[in-house]
Hints:
By secondary structure, the protein is α/β, with parallel strands linked by helices. 37% of the residues lie in helices and 12% in strands. The protein is globular, with a radius of gyration of 17 Å.
Amino acid sequence: xVLYAASRKGQDLSLKSASSKTQLRYPKLDIADPxxxxxxxxxxxxxxxxxxxxxxxxxxxxxxxxxPANVKATIDTNYRxxxxxxxxxxxxxxxxxxxxxxRQMCQTxxxxxxxxxxxxxxxxxxxxxxxxxxxxxxRFRSSKMTLADLEQMMNEYQEAANNGTESRNGxxxxxxxxxxxxxxxxxxxLARANPGLTINACCPGWVDTDMGNxxxxxxxxxxx
Length: 224
């Protein structure tokens, strides 16, 4: 088994595996950069026929400096970047209306997954829908949600952030939480579109990472 533990710098993360047969590799990957995603995907496809599991763990939390530019960066990474890692190439025509420069991760890897493949999108308790208007909560929860609908919601949130009207329009002033709520909704859309795959989202708890340490000393240590 080969495990690719990718990061923006491609650094050795010193992960350990319970199996001596597991090969650990540390390639570079920035999911907010389309060329980085394509380069990573090309490398994986050249080395393997199929991918069994894709875990989307990349994310940013820039809410300590809540500015419109940081809201955009958070949306582009946490939502659009994650979506583009796993969204199926075969479905691109269906979603032509909501393509952007920063969405490739899910769409790139769905065609590469094995028949019983799995995508796990790392979410957060920050994705809770409490605090939003009833209308926005209902839109996030809708079983008829499409990726175009979600893109529209993210554009509306960005516009509200640009104008300082988040609360008036039913949003939170927390880009990280908004994008994680969008990730949950996107996960549900992808799962409905790909019933043969297992596609879900989960919260790993409070983990000792750069982001986790923003709130103190987390009790959990990253590992394989």
